[in-house]
Design goal:
The chain is α/β, with parallel strands linked by helices. The protein has a single domain, classed as Aldolase class I (TIM Barrel). 34% of the residues lie in helices and 29% in strands. The protein contains 10 helices and 12 strands. The chain has an 8-stranded parallel beta barrel, surrounded by 6 helices. Helix 8 crosses helix 10. The longest helix is centred in the first third of the chain and has 11 residues. The radius of gyration is 17 Å and the shape is globular.
C-alpha cells in the first residue's frame, strides 16, 4: 500500500506567505523560508510553493525564495505560478524545485504539458486545476481563481492526463479556506476519470477531514492544506498520528 502524503501549501505574494478564503481576502502569514523549514522538521512529506500573482501580473515566478528554501529544506518541493514555457521549467528546476506545477500557462497552451513531460519526465509535471461549480457544472478558473475560462474542468483534467501530466492538484474554490472539509464529490468525480495521483486541496479544517478524505476516497494520494498548518490549528505530527491510528499508512518521524 502506498503511503498517503501530507503537503503544506505556501501561497507567496510579494515575498510573504498569504492566505485567504475562496481565493479572496489574502492576509499576511509568515516568511516562506522560515515556514518551509518548520514544516520540513515537523514531518511534511512535500511542500508546494505558489507565486499566486505571477500569472495575473504577467511576470516570472520568484526564484530567490526558492533558492534559499532548497538550500535548507530536504523534502520534495513543487513550485508553480507564471509557468508558461520550457524555459520557466528549466529556471525553476535549476533553483532547486523537484516538480513544477502548471495551471494558467497550460490552459493557454496545452502542448506545454507534453513538451515538459517529454523533456523532464511526467513525474516532474504537476497539473494544478482551480475548479468551481458554475450552473451545476465544474468549470476551470485561471489566474489564481480570478478568471472563469468557460472550460469544462473534467474534460480538461482528462486531456491533461493524456498529454503527460504526472500528478493532479485539484483545488476546489468552493471549499478553499472554508474549513468544512474537502470537496469529496468533486474529488470522486476526478478520481473516476484518471489513473494518475490526485492531490486534494481546499477545505481542510481539522484532523477528521483528512481521515474522512482518505477513508472515503482511497484513490486520493495526498492532502494539501494551508491555513490550518500556518496558524497552528493542526500539527503535522498530530495529524499523522491520527491517520495511523485510523489504519491509514503515512510516513512518520522516528
Amino acid at each position: 500500500m502506498i503511503t498517503k502524503r501530507i503537503i503544506p501549501c505556501l501561497d507567496v505574494r510579494d515575498g510573504r506567505v498569504v492566505k485567504g478564503v475562496n481565493f479572496q481576502g489574502l492576509a499576511d502569514v509568515s516568511d516562506p523560508v522560515t515556514l518551509a523549514e518548520r514544516y520540513s522538521r515537523s514531518g511534511a512529506d512535500e511542500l508546494v510553493f505558489y507565486d499566486i500573482t505571477a500569472s495575473a501580473e504577467g511576470r516570472s515566478l520568484f526564484t530567490d525564495i526558492l533558492k534559499r528554501t532548497a538550500e535548507r529544506v530536504f523534502i520534495p518541493l513543487t513550485v508553480g505560478g507564471g509557468i508558461n514555457s520550457l524555459e520557466d521549467f528549466e529556471r525553476v528546476l535549476g533553483c532547486g524545485a523537484d516538480k513544477v506545477s502548471v495551471n494558467s500557462g497550460a490552459i493557454r497552451r496545452p502542448a506545454l504539458i507534453a513538451e515538459a513531460a517529454n523533456r523532464y519526465g511526467s513525474q516532474c509535471v504537476i497539473l494544478s486545476v482551480d475548479m468551481k461549480r458554475v450552473n451545476g457544472a465544474y468549470r476551470v478558473f485561471a489566474k489564481g481563481g480570478r478568471e472563469d475560462t468557460g472550460m469544462d474542468a473534467l474534460e480538461w483534467i482528462r486531456r491533461g492526463a493524456d498529454l503527460g501530466a504526472g500528478e493532479l492538484v485539484i483545488n476546489s474554490i468552493d471549499t478553499d479556506g472554508v474549513k468544512n472539509g474537502f470537496d469529496l464529490e468533486m474529488l470522486a468525480d476526478v478520481c473516476r476519470l484518471v489513473n494518475i495521483p490526485v492531490i486534494a486541496s481546499g477545505g481542510a479544517g481539522k484532523i477528521a477531514d483528512f481521515v474522512e478524505l482518505f477513508q472515503t476516497l482511497p484513490r486520493v494520494d495526498a492532502g494539501l492544506a494551508a491555513s490550518i498548518f500556518h496558524f497552528g490549528e493542526v500539527s503535522i505530527r498530530e495529524l499523522k498520528d491520527a491517520l495511523a491510528e485510523n489504519h491509514i499508512l503515512v510516513r512518520r518521524l522516528s
